[in-house]
From TrEMBL:
All copies of domain DOMON, residue ranges: 64-177
Principal localisation: membrane
Signal peptide, first to last residue: 1-23
Record keywords, A-Z: Electron transport, Membrane, Signal, Transmembrane, Transmembrane helix, Transport
Regions that span the bilayer: 77-95, 216-243, 255-273, 285-308, 320-339
Gene3D superfamilies, alphabetized: 1.20.120.1770
Name by which UniProt lists this protein: Cytochrome b561 and DOMON domain-containing protein
Pfam families, sorted: Cytochrom_B561 (PF03188), DOMON (PF03351)
Cytochrome b561 domain boundaries: 148-345
Organism: Brassica campestris (Field mustard)
Region (Disordered): 347-366
Location(s) in or outside the cell: Membrane
GO CC terms: membrane
InterPro entries for this protein: Cyt_b561/ferric_Rdtase_TM (IPR006593), DOH_DOMON (IPR045266), DOMON_domain (IPR005018)
Length: 366
C-alpha cells in the first residue's frame, strides 16, 4: 500500500445505486481494495448504532484504499462510513448542492499525535484556505455522535446526517492530507508559517503577485527574503569595519543603514509575534508587517543610491546600471499591479486549489 502523501481529491455521485466514478479513477480500484469490504467486521469496534447496521450496508471501493459504506432510511437520514489507509493527517468527506466546492459542508476526522480521535464539521465559505471554517456547516447532524476509529492501518469516519429531501444522487467530495490540522482545527498546511520582508524587492513581488501559486510563492518569498536579510546583515558588518578603518563622513548613509537593520530585526521578530488569522490583532500585525517591509524597500533603494554616489563620485556606470535595474523593477511593479487590480493574477480564489474541490463536469455527465 502506498502511504498517503500530499493531497488528493476524488469526486463521485452518491445515489441509490452504486456511486458513479470518474473514468480515470476506476483504474485505481484493484483486488486489494475490493477485499477491504470483507476483511474487517465493523461491528467489532464501532459503537452503536453504527455497529448494528454496518455489516448490512452496501460497501463500495472508490479509489486506492478509500471505501464507502452508506444507507438511507425513509426519513432521509443517511448513515455514512468512510474508511481509508491512514498514517497521519486527516480524512474528509463533503457534500455539495451543486457539485461545487463553495458553499459545501464536510466532515473531517483524524487521530492526533497523542492518539486522540477528532472529528469536526467544516463549512467551505470560499476557495481560499482560510475560508474552510471549522465547527461550522449546514449538515444536519443527528443526535448520534459522529465517530472516528482507528482499526489496524485503517481510519473510519462514521456519522449520521439528515437531508431535507430525498434526491436520486448527491455530489460528494472526498479528500485527505498527510498534514495534521492546526491546534485550532485549520486544515491549511501553512497556517503557522510566516514571511520576512527586509530589502529585496523580488521577494515582495513574489509575495504579492504569486499567491495563486501556493505553496511555491511562499517558499520563493521566504528564501529570497532570508537571503536578503543575510546579505543586509553582512553589509552592516562590513560597513562597521570600513567605518572603523577610514572614518568616512557619511552620516546619512550610515544612519539609513542602521535604520534598515532595525527594521529587518523587527520583521524577524514578527515571525514570533504572528497572531492567528481569526484574532483581532491579526489586522494590526498585517499593517505592521506590510508597512515595515515597504519602508525597508524604499530606504534600501535610497541608501544604495547614496552608497554608489559616495563610492563613485566621478563615474556614472554604477548609477546608470542601478538606475536601469530600478526602472525595470518599477515597471514590472506597475504592470503586475494593473493585472492584479483587473484580477488576472494574484487571485487565490481563481487559482489556488482549495482544501476541498470538485469537478463541475463530473455532475453533468449523469
Amino acid at each position: 500500500m502506498r502511504t498517503l502523501i500530499g493531497f488528493y481529491i476524488l469526486c463521485l455521485l452518491l445515489g441509490q445505486d452504486l456511486p458513479f466514478l470518474l473514468a480515470d479513477d476506476v483504474n485505481f480500484i484493484n483486488d486489494s481494495t475490493q477485499n477491504l469490504c470483507f476483511a474487517t467486521r465493523l461491528s467489532d469496534f464501532l459503537p452503536p448504532p453504527y455497529s448494528n447496521i454496518s455489516d448490512s450496508m452496501p460497501c463500495t471501493p472508490l479509489w486506492n484504499t478509500f471505501v464507502l459504506r452508506y444507507s438511507e432510511n425513509r426519513d432521509n437520514v443517511m448513515t455514512i462510513i468512510v474508511s481509508a489507509l491512514y498514517t497521519t493527517g486527516w480524512v474528509g468527506v463533503g457534500f455539495s448542492r451543486d457539485g461545487r466546492m463553495v458553499g459545501s459542508s464536510a466532515m473531517v476526522g483524524w487521530i492526533t499525535k497523542k492518539g486522540h480521535a477528532k472529528i469536526k464539521q467544516y463549512y467551505l465559505q470560499g476557495t481560499e484556505r482560510d475560508q474552510v471554517v471549522p465547527d461550522q456547516g449546514e449538515l444536519q447532524l443527528q443526535k448520534v455522535p459522529p465517530v472516528v476509529a482507528l482499526h489496524g492501518a485503517m481510519i473510519y469516519l462514521a456519522f449520521q446526517v439528515k437531508f431535507t429531501v430525498k434526491v436520486p444522487r448527491r455530489a460528494v467530495i472526498l479528500a485527505f492530507s498527510s498534514v495534521y490540522p492546526s491546534k485550532l482545527g485549520r486544515l491549511s498546511k501553512h497556517d503557522d508559517k510566516t514571511t520576512v520582508i527586509v530589502d529585496f524587492s523580488k521577494g515582495a513581488i513574489l509575495a504579492r503577485y504569486l499567491r495563486h501559486r501556493d505553496p511555491l510563492w511562499y517558499y520563493l518569498h521566504i528564501s529570497i527574503q532570508f537571503t536578503g536579510f543575510i546579505f543586509g546583515l553582512a553589509a552592516v558588518i562590513l560597513g562597521i569595519r570600513l567605518y572603523n578603518r577610514i572614518q568616512p563622513d557619511i552620516p546619512a548613509h550610515r544612519g539609513i543603514g542602521i535604520f534598515l537593520l532595525i527594521l529587518s530585526i523587527l520583521q524577524v521578530l514578527a515571525f514570533f509575534a504572528r497572531p492567528h488569522k481569526e484574532t483581532k490583532m491579526r489586522r494590526y500585525w498585517n499593517w505592521y508587517h506590510h508597512w515595515i517591509g515597504r519602508i525597508s524597500l524604499f530606504f534600501g533603494a535610497v541608501n544604495i543610491l547614496l552608497g554608489i554616489r559616495m563610492a563613485n563620485s566621478g563615474e556614472d556606470g554604477w548609477r546608470i546600471g542601478y538606475g536601469f535595474v530600478l526602472a525595470v523593477t518599477l515597471l514590472a511593479f506597475i504592470v503586475l499591479e494593473i493585472f492584479r487590480i483587473r484580477g488576472s493574477i494574484g487571485s487565490p480564489s481563481s487559482h489556488t486549489p482549495p482544501s476541498f474541490e470538485t469537478h463541475p463536469s463530473s455532475t453533468s455527465s449523469v
